[in-house]
Amino acid sequence: MQFGIFSVGDVTTDPLTRHTPDDTERVRNMLTIAKHADEVGLDVFATGEHHNPPFVPSSPTTMLGYLAGVTKHITLSTATTLITTNDPVRLAEEYAMLQVISDGRMDLMLGRGNTGPVYPWFGKDIRQGINLAVENYALLRRLWTEDVVDWSGKFRTPLQGFTSTPRPLDGVPPFVWHASIRSPEIAEQAAYYGDGFLHNAIFWPMEHTAAMVNYYRQRFEHYGHGRADQAIVGLGGQVFVRHDSQKAWDEFLPYFNEAPVYGHGPSMEEFTRDTPLTVGSPQQVIDRYGAFWEQVGHYQRQLFLVDHAGLPLKTVLEQIDLLAGEIVPALRHEAELRRPADVPSDPPSHAELVAAARAAGQVHEQQVAAGDHWTGKTAEDDIDAADEVTA
Amino acid sequence: MSTRSIVVISAGVSQPSSTRLLADRLAEATVTALADLGQQSQVTVVEVRELAHDVVNMTLTGFAAAPLAAAQQAIADADGVIAVTPVYTAGPAGLFKSFVDVLGTDALTGTPVLLGATGGTARHSLVPEVAIRPLFTYLHADVVPTSVFAATDDWADEGGDDVKPLPSRITRAATELAERVARRPTTARPGLYDAVPDFSELLGGA
Q1: Who contacts B110 (Cβ-Cβ below 8 Å, separation ≥6)?
Q2: A308-320 pLDDT, tens per residue?
């Protein structure tokens, strides 16, 4: 089972020191956090994608591309990549490039975004959110699996004879997760393709999460990708840890009370009771997170939010140390003890995807179009080439 | 014939409240009218005051704590709803509006709803029509034509209005609600997972 951290990259004033990092400081902090997570042995770092303040990570593959060069083991991912408002052609290109640069040490998680105005800012209609996710992902897959794509749809200009480069590493596309909190259509989409499904449970009661995950599992089996309990599931989570649980509570409370998302709403008592937020000792986190499988089955990835609400960098790094040093080894050990042998421990790695594709006879020598059909001396030269390719 | 479920939403905040008094009278009259139509019914009362903090929390966080979630489920499963609020400052109580805001856009689609309101004087009588009915129309509820406003004077012996006294208005509105409830099929509202299109349908529709 994999354990990692995900960041929304919020710029929030520290309620104790009143320090507000500027965007540059926050981006650099994210890089420090990711590098530290790699050094201490966490499995995953995932960055959000946002296009409005107070969030800094607008450009995930730039950040992850850099991290691919300066980290060694950690899987680089997203939480989430906007499948609705990004051009699927750019997504195909950018994430294939990241896959090649990171030598397959990446995957990505698709989501629809939670900020309404991002849709009109990128020329999209929010009421088409689900349809955009469906059409854009169908095109993204084709761009990765087919060398030359002719395509037309509702939301993007048509393509004739288009080849997305670089071609995916070893001819196998990155592993994809789909994330949704309350749209069963997205769980349906993940199940249809046999992709992973992540429920970011951090603001939701576990019963709701369990219902959505179990729906995905049933549909995964329905579409013939394996048994329901073999589906690839991830959960979001949120913790604040100190060895002394009372100290954890006292230290986190002012951050909780002022946090942009839930501050001034439920009390921390209510929120820790009703959602996976756990504030206390390492053992309390182990007890709570070690029991989620009872509701959702064995799952492959647990992500924690640890760097939000204005927490200082030093504190965040200490949280990562506690996770990697004490919590994750215990949770991993328990997960392995109870996991049925034929249920995957982790989401598929690049090497496993390549082996599976070879076994299925899907991967042959890369036959990317031998030359560039397109670039002539002038744009008009392309017309003849286009006729050749699409004839 | 199965037992019909009537859910009463009462948003009065004092104890006892005239809003709850009106709500109980409307519920009683509805049960009687349904019995006249040969249908048994069961009444569940949601006191919004008891859920006030959960309503604000849901407004801020997007999810319902268990007691609020249970009330919302009861309303979504109801065969008929009686919604009664005090009038504050020329409109429904803010708490009532907030409660309706977090019900969800599909919770009342097609549900017969009877509106009631209470206020100090008859000067507020049109508040249910101009300020509350539009909320429920927006939610595609089947709002009965008669809504009932009760001013303080309406609780006098003869009623504040000796031509159309409160009891006659209650009976008329409750009868309208009962007729709609009785006509309704008993099939349950589809759950979150019942109406998901098969993915090939989604693909085709993209």
Answers
A1: B140, B141, B142, B184
A2: 999 999 999 999 9
